[in-house]
Fold these 2 entries.
Entry 1:
Amino acid sequence: MDIQDRIRQQVEANPVVLYMKGTPQFPQCGFSSRAAQILKACGVNDYLAVNVLADAELREGIKVFSSWPTIPQLYIKGQFVGGSDIMMDLYQKGELQTLLAA
Amino acid sequence: MTDTVAEMRARLACLNPLRLDILDESAAHAGHAGARSGGGHYRMHIASATFEGLGTVARHRAVYAALGDLMQNAIHALTIVATSPSENTPEPTA
């Protein structure tokens, strides 16, 4: 399967997907760490975390998929939400919690 | 390092920034596992009338589009605060 199809399937099959460097337990980048912490602060523990460092094809493919050049990237119900700055912004406005609860 | 900042400023000129602060934070991140590609870490506050009416994702996309291939090599990480003239200008938070 093409990497773009693989990503599409992944974000559509899982309500919340976080593409990150490392894992929520052992993040390998401060921005990925922050993204995982924001989800935790929203009370979301049951989400798919994908470690892009474990898959070079995915690491590049995810940037193409969203036309977004950086990682982490959050998807909710198949929709690209943003990176860690945007997650923090939405969290502080209470909007991320709403998106996650919907 | 400063060359990258100068290049960023040159490329962002197309957004007619009213304010453009770029902070090079690379030294604070040297050598961490995610930064092996060698790109720098930067923090930016950009204010532009072109951001009026745009959401945060669209503003960040405009910045990324202007920076082009710098995002693939010279820049490893970029924290962006993008405001329009009618908005308050909060400082970037860590």
Note: The helical segments of chain B are 2-12, 26-29, 56-67.
Entry 2:
Amino acid sequence: MATLPTFNEYMFLASILALEEEAYGVSIRDKAAQLSGTKVTYGCLYSHLDQLHRKGFVVKRMGKPTLERGGRSKIFYSVTPAGLKALKAFASVQKSIRAALPHLALDGQ
Amino acid sequence: MSITVPPPCPDRKEGPPTAALHLLALIARTPDFPFLEADLREEHAFKSQSRGHRKADVWYWAQVLSSLPRFALSSLRWSLIMLKNSLTVARRHMIRHKGFSALNILGLASGLACCLLIGFWILDELSFDRFHKNAASIYRVESDTNYNGRILHIYWTPHPLGPALASEFPEIAQSARAWSQRKPLIRAGESATDAWTVWAVDPSFLDMFTFPLKAGNPTRALEGTTSVVLTERAAKAIFGNEEPVGRKLEITGGGTFAVTAILADIPRNSSLQFDVLIPYTALESLGRVGNQFNDNQTATFVRLADRTAADATRAKIRDFIRTKIPESGMKLDLLGLTRLRLQTWSGYEKRTAVESLRLFSLIAALVLLIGCINFMNLSTARSARRAKEIGLRRTVGARRGHIVRQFYGEAAVYALFAMVLALATVTLAFPAFNALTGKSMSWSTLGAGRMALGAIAVALVTALISGSYPAFVLSSFRPVQALRGTLSRGSGGILFRRILVVVQFALSAGLLVGTGVASRQMAFIQNTPLGWSREQVLAVKIPAEARPTIESLKAEMKAVPGVLAAGLSDQSPENSTWSSSGFDWEGRDPQTKIDITYMTVDEGYVEALGIKVVEGRNFSAGLPTDKTEAVLVNETFARMMGTGSAVGKRFDFWSRKGTIVGVLGDFHFQPLRNKIEPLAVKWRESDWTRFMLLRLGPSGVSSVIASLERIWKSRFPGIPFHYSFLDDDFAALYQTELQTASLFKVFSGLAVLVACLGLLGLAAHAAERRTREFAIRKVLGAPARTLIGLICREFVVLIVLANVLSWPAAYLLMRGWLNRFAYRADFSVLLFAGALGISLMIGLLTVAQQALRAARTNPVGALKQE
């Protein structure tokens, strides 16, 4: 597929991957906020999840309904092979950027 | 997609705020909305446990509100995607049903083109005189005088009125007088021309009106008594390419003037048209103006200090003349500058042109309406074809609003296409339309950008009107029925569509009747015997210089071979308007004050115009007493005098003794709008002679004119030779009516065309709907003409009904128009029958072609279906 994830989509993709089996709305939002260091709204979260799903980078799976969710089930996300491939490509680009511009990485720390 | 808000928790205290929840439901466009909602609920529950309910609610609100922009954006994206889909579908439908789309677009385009042209015409009319900076606060002073029970409305006012008003009423900030002299002879060095209208105006004129100045100082341009201001084109014509400022010119009867300033040419959309301005003081120094309040010769303009105080000021100055002349019956009135254009005159009676503006706006709206109805008709007639598509859309979750929006979108696509076509047509039609209306409109004069915006707005309104019915009908389909194909095939709309066709044809028939009435009246005017013959009569304009030697000029011109008769007159014969109450005659009732129209001519006049002498004799050049005492009257006057012969009776012209020597047959000396009134004719006075009328033989007209012009040139070198044919002058009198008649023709033609397009579509649909019925009838042996008759009968009833409905309205409207003529071709049953005949014929031709196709199809194909 020619369509690549956007920068924000990489971030959510990474969060889902990091959460393994436990990736659903609340946890993804927390993780993404933690990874990016910024606030993430639900509007932002769901519009990106929709996009990732539409582009075939994630799949959805229904969980069991729970009481604290008003009797609703959770929807869990997991990364597809295409998503993984895109994320790996992104990581390697990041790595080569770090190698080429070491002072960028230093600035961050 | 259907989003339902889950019911709030039984115990509200634990759930998130309901209002925020609803807001979220309204804006969140994600297929996972339930989970999003659940996520929020989970975190809300967690937060309210750890940090308290209040803080959790605040957090919830913050989340919803901060998500708003994101969701709004995504919702916009989705509606754009849907729009793209709608456009694709619309495009495919257009391409697949080419004929149907062409009919639709053509109908809309004709309506739009009509609407645009008439709209431009109206805008142009309304744009008159608005370019002056103070246009809204400038008024012309007019007056009403009660004259034997008739109100005479004139805009000529006494000379001292303007300055008196400005000094006595604080409400009036400024006044300017304008006294006009039509085209006197202007000499400058070698050149002499009489092509320019001269106005004598107060210096304040150039301050009150903002005619742009090209050279010179507006406040000082009209100082003194010998300054003159020219328009650019007049300066160029008089002085050629030389610098005009500072040069001198001579105006006949006015003296010598020096050019002080140059005006840009007066814009076309100005009611005040002049080319030469001289100071009012020049008139005063010549003794041409008096200081009396009973001498109405000048136009007076005033600028109000407060433009909202017009009514109060009008009431205040109404009886002003009476404070100067106690016995005067003249009442003053104010007419706004921007209304000048809309006021027209019929004799001395005021009339406004707003009426014809309204009539044409109505016609524009009607033609556009017919186009819209066309669209509705055709779209709903084809609804069965779209049923499956709509059913499918609804099954996969489209709401009714989506379908409505889709069809509005489609209507907009059609309307925009039609608008492009209409704009192209209008651009091509500008020259013809200008020729018809005597305007010079083009995109640049109208302001193309503004007009384009207007056009788009009109197109969208059209889409809104024409799309509304199809949108609501089509969106009301029940999905299951639509998909199954059990939808009754558009039967519910049949009555409505028939009503639409009736409306269309009623409007067209009304326009046809209007066209008939207007054309008949015009033909009537052209063919009414006038009592004088206008063919082959040349009217030569006589300037002041030629008057002293006019008799020998007449003799010389009459001697030219091909000139049959020559006469002199003070007025043009087709529009003689001088009248006076200063006459007395034998047997006059001293109580009545009656105006008698009069003209002064010579012995050749009657012969040159071919007027009949029904009793007594014509003037005779051989009798010297004829020049002082003889009077001719017309038959109407003779009738008014009562029984017995009028010849030999006493008739005094302004207390000078006279005798009636002959009675002339009644002839129309005024436009046919007016009745023939009593007329008295006296021997000409040299000062008043304005026209020489020459009756020419039937052949060699151009060589006769050439020899006449040679004679003129040898006698009056430098003075232009102006002549016209009386039949042209006569036609010019009815220019507005002729315009109305031809505009009617154009628009009613278009209306009928558009209505036929609608009928064509409907007939095609009717034929298609009954394909199988026809096939069965055919198999059972029905001949083709029976089948054609079946379809045609249905439409004949509709067209006849439409005609009958339109007649009363057409009758009332056109009677109003005809009433402006004293002599008119009255209504005849033939007009209505003609409109019926034409619409039936065109309608049937349209339908028959479709019916024929239906009747000719092979019945086997139709019966094999399904």
Note: Chain B touches chain A at residues 6, 9, 15, 28, 30-32, 34-43, 45-46, 63-64, 66-71, 73-74 (CB under 8 Å).
